[in-house]
Fold each of these.
Amino acid sequence: MSRERAPAGSEHTSPTPSDPTGATRALGASLPNDRRRRRLGTVFLGVCFVATSIGAITLMVLLVDVFLDGIGQLDPEFLGNYASRFADRAGIRAPLFGTFWILLLTGAISFPLSVGAAVYLEEYAPKNWITRIIQVNIANLAGVPSIVYGILGLAVFVRWMGLGRSLIAGALTLSILILPVIIMAAQEAIRAVPDSIRQAAYGLGATRWQVTRRQVLPMAMPGILTGTILALSRAVGETAPLIMIGALSFIAFTPQGLTDQFTVLPLQIYSWISRPGEDFHAIAAAAIIVLLALLLAMNAVAIVLRNRFGRVRSN
Amino acid sequence: MAIVHDIDTGGSTPALEAKRVSVSYGSKRAVSDVSLVVPRHRVVALIGPSGCGKSTFLRCFNRMNDLIPSATVEGEVLFHGQDLYRPEIDPVEVRRRIGMVFQKPNPFPKSIFDNVAFGPRINGFDGDLPPRVEESLRQAALWDEVSDRLDDSAYELSGGQQQRLCIARALAVRPEIVLMDEPASSLDPIATQKIEELIFELKERYTIVIVTHNMQQAARISDYTAFLYMGELIEYGPTEVIFTRPAEERTEAYVTGRFG
Ligand SMILES: Nc1ncnc2c1ncn2[C@@H]1O[C@H](COP(=O)(O)OP(=O)(O)O)[C@@H](O)[C@H]1O
Ligand SMILES: [Mg+2]
């Protein structure tokens, strides 16, 4: 409610002798009380601005620092070389390929599973207590620390299924990590499809599957893809679960098959940073730039997708 | 008990017959014990104040209430003398034979052509689609306005055109009966008039059950009118009788605009 419309005689207006109710007060004539509230508003705005600035400036400083440290190292050789004991000969060929494969495999595993789960929960599952428990579980799983998924991956994929420290074990572990996030994003996208569209399709004699496949999924797809890309960009930055399942950082080959060993960018960065010596820190910074560029590109794709098709049209 | 005047089914089995139909949402009863006969190739209007159960009752005719988890339907709905609610009847099949048009135009976010073609496509139609689409659009009196832009998005049409597109879409599956739930309530008077003229033409080929809260509209387009009140059928008969010589006081009060 705007202050000019405060009810006459309420504590917000201070009646003047000539105008006991304050009802005929001109719009421009603000009262002392108003001035104080406006000042409070300005202070609050300032606090918010400072808070935002702290975040933005810290990020900028970090980025500039990394950029200055690493940009000199960033050349084709750095991208093309394998790891080395000598910083000037070391490159990120193996982690670059590893990250690429992890990205592809994790996407290929988690996307169909998540969409299936989301479709089941939104379009098929009866709204009973079992469904609610599943739903609560998914929400909680999204908040579980990633190291826990690493432990799970180590126990189930590496040891029990005997996959070893392989690409596929890493991709499976990361898939489980991001499943809940994609499922929830997909559910939201599916829920945003207006019910009138489902009604129209059912009314024409469509089966549940036809309604889902031909109307709901196409309309929800931009939202689902956006969520998937954002989740994948989280997976690409993960280190802890991959360390847990025993991925190495010194790898002098690119993976040729699913069961090959692998490394990824964050792991390589982590290992270089942990070494003494300025020269390794510099190539770590260069690798960070590459990783950031990759993440930025993925987020850009997600934003474009959301803006292009984001709003489900309904009328 | 409801007062039912003479309903002339022309000696043949009616297109639809509701027998003691009741619908509840959870424990809340929305339709109570309604029996009503819909003669072939006639327009039957369901009127009554908002919330009296018109839409709920209409949805019994093509089992759309099945999609609402809390809804339970009792009684029988006969279509060609067969109860639509027998366990072996597939609701998907029912909805192919008995089409529906909704209150707000709800075209798919696709081209005009694809909207109309959707029904035939999902129903495994293996004939030539373009003629089927054209014929349906002609029947819905929309062809002349859209024939040169079938690939445009359906959302580019006006509200009235969208609603006629939805009618064309329903007709494209070649239903025997078309159910309409206040199809003109979100349209302007001119678009409304077009829909009304269209309904008048459609009854040559189809049986139509239409919900409306607009009494002039019911009087203009329907052959029979059923007045529902608080989930019960109060009076049913030829439209002319319901509007000029109703037997029930509540019917008279409603059609003369004294309540509702
Ligand atoms: N999906 C639903 N769930 C629960 N109650 C409903 C639902 N749809 C309708 N109702 C209730 O059933 C009664 C009849 O509604 P409806 O058939 O939509 O009436 P009308 O179409 O005549 O306005 C109303 O009291 C309404 O609140
Ligand atoms: Mg209604």
Amino acid sequence: MSAALAAPRGIDTPTEPMIDVAGLVKVYGGNEGDTGEGVVRAVNGIDFHVDPGEFFGFLGPNGSGKTTTIKILTTLLRPTRGAVKVGGLDVVERPQDVRKLLGYAGQSIGVDGDLTGRENLRLIGHLYHLPGSVVRDRVEELLDVLQLTEAADRPAGTYSGGMRRRLDLGSGLVHHPPLLFLDEPTTGLDPQTRNAVWEYLRTLHRTERMTIFLTTQYMEEADQLCQRLAIMDHGRIVAAGTPHELKAGIGADLITIRLPQDGSFEANRARALALAHTVPGVAGAVEFEQGVTMRAVHGGATLVEVLRRLEAEKVPVNEVAVSPPTLDQVFLQHTGREMQVEEVRPASRGPWAARRN
Amino acid sequence: MAATESVYRPAAPTISAPAALGSAGGIATEILWVAYRSLRKLSRSPFLLFFTLMMPIIWLGMFSQTFGTVFERATNVPGQAPLPYDYIAVLLPGIAVMSAIQSAAQSGFSMVSDIETGFMDKFLVAPISRASVLVGKTLADGVRMAAQTAIVLAIAEIFCVAFGWKIPFATGVAGCAMIVLLVAAFGVAFAGLSNSVALFTKRTETTMMVSFTLTFPLLFLSTAMLPYDLLPGWVQAFSKFNPVSYIATAARTLILTGWNWTEIGQAFLAVVIVAVLLYSLAVFAFRRQTA
Ligand SMILES: Nc1ncnc2c1ncn2[C@@H]1O[C@H](COP(=O)(O)OP(=O)(O)OP(=O)(O)O)[C@@H](O)[C@H]1O
Ligand SMILES: [Mg+2]
């Protein structure tokens, strides 16, 4: 398994991990070792940990075992095998104590369409045994930050997809959990609403020091939000690390150099290409209509060297860019397949989307 | 590889549960909130509410018309004074039990729909007793059954005044309250079956089939529709093992003659036995569902 899984705990983070999973297996419709019709090995031996305060993600395509894992972590399912600790507590032995630590917003949005938004949140608050006045204040606060105050007295069944997602997110937050589980929190949302949810999650993570565990099928979401992530495929973690490490593991950044479109463009481009080939670390350079692109393991360092040589040779440069590899390439490298994401139907726009227009 | 950018140092990690948790109330609070939520849902469905409450009245009208004359002919012995009450008085407790059983049969539906919508997970990730969810839901159904029973008793009384129906109501309002309690308690107990099926199968159709298939034999192979003496021999034998009989008989005595604490005690014992059996099954199903 990748080095990132065995991050230097004990030095940076003397506390126990918030989530500690070792040898987790989940078999539906049977036991460990069973085969045959109807037996599904949804999670096939995974190990990982999440530190307190970390924003951690599971990235994987449909059926890779993300929901199964999150349901085990939230005590909704029992593991077939493996040691699973949340907040230092065994999820099988002390589920009730684990539940006190966590908030959860599932993949199928669990809001009651017959209750109003406010009633949905209050119910959750009372189920967590919060005193009445605390419930009232907390619910108003959440309705406010989630921009649901105006719709608070309408049945949640009349909400747009984005509003329901937010309400569901809110219901996972009523009791101020130190640990939040989100199963595909932005699936089905339009880009603007998605951005707003991202922004809110970042704020939560920063200001409430919440540990967040998120699953997603979106490369961009994992890349934007997660400090560390595990890439899941067929019930296994095929790669793990910071988005940066994962992409760096691919080997090469993309360097793009654009040249001025003047009379000597063609000649300059030929010289730039020839030069690029001489720089150590450049893994391959090609021309394109605006200049030259090349691959390099350490994009930044290589770019400096390329620019120095261009300068020395007096080749004029218009614009430069270094772009890291994407997580798509990471997934491809580890599985040999492109990650297929189900086509998403954007939810109709809620007030969040409107606000951001 | 610039790893420094990504090394994360938590500001002040917390692993303890929020301090405010667990301070307000115990299991009773949980049950009440689960029940409140179900009743709130019912109040948001006016049609459902209306038909729930009207159903027993429709049964009452239909059965009294259809079987009333048959019953009179059967009980009218020449040379003796006619009975001082109508068949409707005999039937009334049966109708009440029947309505409660029907509501109980549907009790599992909301369980299935909560599982399907994912709302059940909200209950299950909360640090509440699993039994609270089950009991809270069926308790809400119990409130509904109590309301049904109270309404059908009230309507029957109104008909006595308006159309001269002969129902003695021998134990008055207190007796009626006892009937409401008995019938609702039995309904809640019986709802354990529909919830078990719901939790085992997670399908509304199956829940409906199993419950409805059992509903009518339970009713007709009991003393709910006719007094014990008028039942055929083999039904009499069966009815002794049928808890519905004990509820119906106790309620009938309360309406026709007076307080009979033996019968009432037996009826509550029947409720307890049914509840223990069916709720054990339901809790087992609940555990399995989340395994
Ligand atoms: N209750 C169940 N019974 C049997 N098989 C199941 C059950 N739930 C999930 N599975 C199977 O387990 C595998 C993993 O499913 P899971 O829901 O964990 O994937 P996922 O990564 O969350 O996928 P998605 O992105 O579609 O939500 C799939 O093959 C799925 O069909
Ligand atoms: Mg999933």
Amino acid sequence: MAGVDELIAKEGVEEETVEAVKSLAGAYKYGWETEIEMEYAPKGVNPDIVRLISDKNDEPEWMTEWRLEAFARWEKLDEPSWALLNYPEIDFQDQYYYARPKSMEEKPKSLDDVDPKLLETYKKLGIPLKEQMILAGVDGAEDMPAEGRKVAVDAVFDSVSVGTTFQAELKKAGVIFCSISEAIKEHPELVKKYLGSVVPVSDNYYATLNSAVFSDGSFVYIPPNTRCPMELSTYFRINAENTGQFERTLIIADKGSYVSYLEGCTAPQRDTAQLHAAVVEIIIEEDAEVKYSTVQNWYPGDENGKGGIYNFVTKRADCRGDRSKVMWTQVETGSAVTWKYPSCILRGAESQGEFYSIAITNNYQQADTGTKMVHLGRDTKSRIVSKGISAGKAQNTYRGLVSMHPKAKNSRNYTQCDSLLIGDKCGAHTVPYIEVKNNSSRVEHEATTSKVDEEQMFYCRQRGMDEEEAVALIVNGFAKEVLQALPMEFAMEAQQLVAISLEGSVG
Amino acid sequence: MLKINNLHVKLEEEDKQILKGVDLEVPAGKVHAIMGPNGSGKSTLSYVLSGRDGYEVTAGDATLDGEELLDMEPEERAAAGLFLAFQYPVEIPGVGNMTFLRTAVNAQRKARGEEEMSAADFLKFVRAKAKDLKIDADMLKRPVNVGFSGGEKKRNEILQMAMLEPKMCILDETDSGLDVDAMKLVSEGVNALRDEGRSFLVITHYQRLLDHIKPDVVHIMAAGRIVKSGGPELALEVEHNGYADILAEIDA
Ligand SMILES: Nc1ncnc2c1ncn2[C@@H]1O[C@H](COP(=O)(O)OP(=O)(O)OP(=O)(O)O)[C@@H](O)[C@H]1O
Ligand SMILES: [Mg+2]
């Protein structure tokens, strides 16, 4: 009976949630910091800093030029203010733009050469031992048997990628998975062709800044008709104080290929806010498919709104080929401020874009997030499922654009946007923009706002659950559709995060 | 087992007294039934005992095996062995029935310092209980009570009761909305749980249920008090003559 087996698996996941809620009764789990000797560039940003970053990465001249042009542009731009976000002015000159562990100056030869603190960091982040060793660059680690299912990991520690696992095995399949700094050197023709082709340098304030100062990130290329043999993932970790993280990710899925990519983010607990401005570009050719899942758990600040990560992210997928497909799934539980709209350009005929999102804000967190579905080709389809959860004094805004261009004949969009409020001091807002420029396309939009129901809470408690367990259960139920869109391991982590990020929201 | 002493309860928000001195004792292993006109305070009594918000106890107390019930949080009362089968079971969208049950069972176990049930044991346990109540695998997978028929919701309450193995079970009109066959299933479910260490307080309007679940004592509640108690024959009397005679007797 297939149905029953499936049931066991699902039940297993959810039990973990409850366990985690109990065992992780503390606050933010990743709030520790690694005391490690760091190398910094001087504070602030100017053409010299841009050159220094380029130089540290050993970049060719064309890359340096590209960055400098971006910087010149950025200097003329003003920070946007249209989002429903309220935060103190960011002093962009009072940040470090480059920080890397000193031990990374030379790649370690064996485990003994690796800074034990770096290894410790990976362990705390839950990266399996084998992966830890590979990340640390230990010879022979790749040939060890893997525990469980394989997931290739790229880890970015502050400004630099510290290592990528399973590279050799991926290479056999023709897949390139490495840090972007490595790709710039090893695969310049691919980088030149695609970098900035989805998110142009001029796109927006934060993307322009990122183009000038990005220090590292991941690069993925999947050759034609190839199904990537394992899931790829990147762990981003901000460790250094007063340091912005500007990562850049470029994913290219060539004709008929498939890849599932996961991204996880954490940062230490600090009183001062920290900046994170990433750019992710995805290019999807004919009949190719990319799934991109994010669990964003940057430090959200304390219960009084002190500290936390300011997260300004530009993510965009370009479905260039006919019948290409992209699916964004995001679970946004962290950050003090989130400004993020993963978007789909549906250029190819019959291409499809999907966006599944859970955004949880508690205490003083603010999120202005959503998506853009730009239908350019005929018979394109998009689907948006957004679940916003607000607790404490938090504000949560869904902002979404659905645009049907004149040539996007017979296209469809379905949007469902649900907000859940916990308590009466928080807010939920829905800002949909809809433009339809042809008369054969259809756009459907549904929105609901509800409160965590007293009756449901009492029912759960009468059955023995405490308040936090009950809220976690109800919220996980509310967000079910999105959780189900995540790969298994991430779904477990996400359910735990839902519970943890809502701690202190009731009672 | 359950002792209620001079319990007075008003609404928190309004100046409305609902329970006006309830006295009731259900010894271990016994089944007591409560009947009474609509609005007499039967559900209110069950909510106050289980700790729902919105009520204020102005006098009296209630104990479960000597423990003061009214000072505890609802989940503490549950862990202490109090179970309420709701008159109107609540829907929880997106939460699988099985997940809900599992979370509840393990929460109570933890609260009592017991070990959690393993996934395999739990599945075996829930399947056996569900089978007895003719609850199929599909109903176990579906979200809690969402789209369940009235009768299915009531059977689901009994399933939860069977899984949680409480010592004091309050059933609030579990028979209403059940067809004849379901009534039998539910009664069998309840009877299977009858045990010298477990007591039942069965709220009902109909003698019918009491044919299946034989009560030791029947109480009549009216205007917020227990006005008369007797043997099973009291239920028959209500069935035939309504409440008029009993109420007239008290007023006199
Ligand atoms: N939250 C409330 N607000 C206003 N009135 C209430 C509230 N809760 C209970 N009552 C009133 O208290 C009285 C007792 O209600 P309760 O539900 O306990 O009656 P019952 O005996 O269970 O009735 P039934 O047999 O119809 O189920 C009723 O008059 C009801 O309207
Ligand atoms: Mg009632």
